[in-house]
Amino acid sequence: MNTPMKYFIYARKSTDDHSRQIRSIGDQLTEVREMAQREKLTVVEELIEKQSAKAPGRPVFSAMIERIKEGEAQGILAWNPDRLARNAIDGGTIIYLIDTGALKDLKFPTYKFDRSATGKFMLGISLTQSKYYSDNLGENVMRGKRQKIKNGLWPQVAPVGYVNDRRTRTIVPDPMQSPLIREMFELYATGLYSLYDLRKHFIERGLVGTRGKLLSISRIQHALTNPIYYGLMRYNGEFYEGKHQPLVTKELFDRCRLTMLEKGRAKSKGSQPFLYRGLIHCGECGGMITMERQKGHIYLRCTKKKGPCSQPFMRQEALDQQVKASLKLAAISEKTAKEILAGFDQLAAEYEHAEHERRERFRQEIAQCDDRQRRLMEVYLDNAISIDEFRSTKNALTAQRRQIQEKLEESQQQGFDRLEPLRTVVKTSLQATYTSENENPAERLKMFNSVGSNLTLRDRRLKWVPREAWQLIVDAAVVELGGPGAGSDLAGVGAQDREEQIKRRGGDSNPRYRL
């Protein structure tokens, strides 16, 4: 008596959509079960796989092949040959098992197979056709992505801070995540935060990745170097102009990039990690101020490499106090920061309104050029003007339209908050209030480096120059403290010429609002 042939039922679906997987696999199982019942086939087990067959390496399929080699079953029941293989290796494995006799039968509700030479040849064609379909589908998908990226539309899953808009088939800022991404760029650009600090801070704020997972440090770094956030899309090593709304400006993005390069520079292993080494010049001879440890204390002194110098030693603790006092000059209260930021919001809204009207005027002028070109074509077709007159007028209109279009594009590209750098200054100054009280001198120095520059030391007194907009904040603080020489809190801000400027500005009744 012949032993009945045993079969594995194999069902597969490659889509990532869970609901579509279950529905499609259920449809496959329904049809193959009906065929098994109709032909009274002996089924050993039903095997289900949710993975693409484009490449070899499917675990369920590989395990099934090994079980067939061991004689556990001699046939496979599947909905269609393309469920078994869409690549040359798996397809060749199936045909090889048929040739060796380990696999004696294949049954499909949609395809008739027999073990003759012609049957195996037709099966090979069917499997090859499945591979061709898979390859062709991949090429079509890639072609669609390339065309989409050329049109300024992001063709993949939206990066963190954006969401995919199914209606417009592009990406739009996530109302919850995009402000956090913008703030992440602003904080990192100050140079006061490491990638680890950012990750910890924004995980607490609720920032998550595209699939709801916690962001790793590498993902934070990738986001800070991804040009998509300022409007350019990087795809296959090329850059394309995007039509999506940028979250940050190019200037802020570049500052983050420079900060990352600075943090990535290798530190010299030959020198001790003294806090102020290489940051301060001597106010008398211009040489560098070096640091050394003596009897348990750290001292600063001039290297005297530029000639004789009479400047004395200075303890680091004394310099720490001067940095602390200097940092207080760049600090503003939370109330003042809110009022200034509210003023910025109003100015930004007024600017955006003016730019909107300007863009509408450009669009109207472009529409007028298009209408004139249409009417010019009608006149030419009526033989009312010669070909030379038509070309001359058309070229002039085309040049005029292009010029207006460039103005419109320039206006659209500048449609960001121009006060963003000043917003960063205000937020950093607000943070300086707390950092100045920080007991960690290294944290105070990091903040101080973003506020001041040109540090010099003369007669054990630190002098420095505020950077850019911080000059206004420091000037206001000096005036509120009573002007130059009002007390030790001034901590040597600037030189004598700056003090004269502060005197001349002393008549401002509310100098902190001049920002």
Major sheet summary line? 4 strands, parallel
Fraction of residues in H or I helices: 40-55%
Low-confidence stretches: 16-23, 484-491, 494-515
The CATH superfamily of the domain at 6-147 appears as: Resolvase, N-terminal catalytic domain
CATH classification, class level of the domain at 6-147: Alpha Beta
Class based on secondary structure composition and strand pairing: alpha/beta
The ordered string of helix (H) and strand (E) elements is: EHEHEHHEHEEHHHEEHEEEEHHHHHEEHH
The largest sheet has its strands arranged as 2-1-3-4
Question: What do you see in this structure?
Answer:
Helix content is 51%, strand content 13%. The protein contains 16 helices and 14 strands. Helix 10 (316-329) crosses helix 14 (441-451) and helix 11 (334-381) packs antiparallel against helix 13. The longest helix has 48 residues, at 334-381. It is flat. The model is unreliable at 16-23, 484-491 and 494-515 (pLDDT under 50).
Characteristics of this structure?
three-stranded mixed beta sheet, alpha/beta, Rossmann fold, 13% strand, four-stranded parallel beta sheet, 16 helices, Hect, E3 ligase catalytic domain fold, 515 residues, disordered C terminus
